[in-house]
Design a protein that fits this description.
The chain is mostly helical. It has twelve helices and no strands. The chain is globular, with a radius of gyration of 19 Å.
């Protein structure tokens, strides 16, 4: 049981489950009447497996850097790096197999998302391209959800852009508590470089601005019957952004996480019209 608990913690369970719920409910909400529940389950399992592979590989790679951190199972010996790598390899193969069961379009998108996420873990996290990894991986998620639908459509551009901004904003928000530690450890991703050049306040502002922009795009993409929910979400995001901009200590971080949570909830609730109708060419489907 200790090993299972350690693996769960090392998988980064909260973001993993949030991303899985977001993709699953996007598919379920956009599905036409009579759409098979099996395909929704395949989407959920494929995304979850991919998230597990990303979380486990991240902790395996960072085990030495995380030495002494009690919240990192590999760093305190609760799970071996070998076990994390084995779990990550099995999870990525499972994700690709599940995506393949949905069709070649789904497989291609899933492979791209996984490759981008793994590239972040394998080195891009310490470069100026760290933000691109988050933006691309999150931006592809709605199209993966849509690709399970009949005809394998792609997500509309506002939905894709909103997801990309959500991912990029979450990346900036996620590093806010660790800027000082990242400086000591030589982690020089895009948010850390911005903080080094313009100060931590610039990174906080970027996190809040990107996430608020995602809320605006979700309003643009909202289906007519649910525009009221997107308006409420934007108002909540705006209030949190103001609180974050004026706050000190942990307030900006908590405000950014709050806006990200609002956006994930709007995605999961299917507020936006996921697809515009025309489907991808049948040659791929």
């Amino acid at each position: 049981m200790k090993l299972v608990r350690a693996l769960i913690i090392a998988s980064h369970p909260i973001p993993s489950l949030a991303v899985t719920a977001m993709a699953t409910l996007l598919t379920a909400e956009a599905a036409p009447p009579g759409f098979g529940a099996v395909r929704v389950v395949l989407v959920a399992l494929a995304v979850l497996a991919g998230q597990l592979s990303v979380g486990w590989s991240n902790d395996a790679i960072d085990a030495e850097r995380d030495a002494g951190r009690s919240d990192k199972p590999a760093a305190v010996g609760l799970v071996s790096v070998h076990a994390l790598w084995l779990g990550a390899a099995v999870a990525v193969l499972a994700s690709l197999a599940l995506a393949a069961a949905l069709g070649p379009v789904s497989l291609a998108i899933d492979a791209a998302m996984t490759a981008v996420a793994w590239s972040y873990n394998l080195g891009l996290k310490t470069t100026v391209w760290s933000g691109a990894s988050y933006a691309i991986a999150f931006g592809l998620l709605p199209s993966f959800a849509a690709s399970a639908l009949p005809g394998h459509p792609l997500a509309r551009w506002p939905v894709t852009a909103a997801a990309a901004l959500l991912g990029l904003g979450a990346h900036f928000a996620n590093v806010l508590p660790d800027l000082a530690a990242d400086e000591r450890n030589g982690v020089r991703g895009l948010p850390q470089r911005l903080a080094a050049r313009s100060g931590p306040g610039a990174t906080r502002s970027a996190a809040l601005g990107l996430l608020l922009a995602a809320s605006v795009l979700l309003l643009i993409a909202a289906s007519p019957g649910r525009r009221w929910a997107a308006i409420v979400g934007l108002c909540c995001s705006g209030a949190l952004a103001v609180a974050g901009a004026r706050g000190h200590g942990k307030v900006p971080f908590l405000a950014a996480i709050g806006i990200a949570g609002v956006n994930v909830a709007l995605f999961a609730a299917g507020v936006e019209a996921l697809t515009s109708g025309p489907h991808l060419a049948g040659a791929l489907g």
